[in-house]
Amino acid sequence: MPTQTEDLRRRIVADINAGEPGAKLGSERELAERYGTSRSSLRQVLAALQESGLIDRVIGRSGGIFISHAQVQRSLSDLVGVPAFLANQGYEAGTRVLSTRIAAPDRPAQHALGLGPDDFVVEIRRVRLADGSPISLESAQFPADAFPGLLERQLGGSIYELLESSYGLVTSRADERIEAVNATPEEARLLGIAPESALLLITRVTFDQSGQPCEFSKDLFRGDRTRLAVTVQGRGVGVQSAVDTASVALQSQSARIKAS
Q1: Cα 71–Cα 199–Cα 176 angle in degrees, nearest 5
Q2: Which of 62, 168, 183, 230 lies at a CB distance of 3.0 to 4.6 Å from 76, suitable for a disulfide?
Q3: How buried is residue 32: exposed, middle or buried, by Cβ count under 10 Å (0-12/13-18/19+)?
Q4: How confident is the model over 136-149, as pLDDT tens digits?
Q5: Which CATH code of 3.40.1410.10, 3.40.50.970, 3.50.50.60, 3.40.50.2300 fits the domain covering 72-230?
Q6: What whole-number distance in Å separates Cα of residue 211 and Cα of residue 96?
Q7: In whole angstroms, what is the distance from residue 115 CA to residue 98 CA?
Q8: Where does this protein have coiled-coil stretches (predicted)?
Q9: pTM: predicted TM-score of the whole model, two decimal places
């Protein structure tokens, strides 16, 4: 059962998620009256929310508590699940499982996972939350024969941690492609944003410790809440890397239209 402090935090976060960035929640006095709490308890919760980047506190006659909706940072240098990188930045990670099924893979998944025409995949669709606010929409496919009983397990946390603890799989690397796209009406509804809002589409093929592909996924991150970070090594001008580790490619407009 949640404590009074946690209950207060959840109520404030719910109001933050229902508002718009930059909107004023109220003054400290107004919020204490609204939530029926002492100002000392309120200050404790507000300090934590400010540290997480969800609110801004402005001092002065026109000041008050304002919705911030700070961005979360996803590193392109580390292969970790969403709960891990959210927790490292002080957010409370959450998950809403939308659907699960065993189905025939689509053509991109079949090619990425090296599957035959008679093989099946486990498909899991989830919405990821940061402090209760939708941050990304995931659609992941895994070879069904490699992970029997996967859909019978708890799917609200990190799939990578689940695969390691239950199946002995350790992720060794991932190939990712990143595109800027616009949200469809359905994607916008699930992420709590306006249709056509900017999204970052990350298409990923993950490999296990034996070098075998084990996951094909497409993650849609809110463009207004996400920034990407990567660490690269310099080798000097004119030195050719033995393996291409990063690249930027321009997709033609006609190819984008055809793909959609």
Answers
A1: 95
A2: 230
A3: middle
A4: 999 999 999 999 99
A5: 3.40.1410.10
A6: 30
A7: 25
A8: none
A9: 0.65
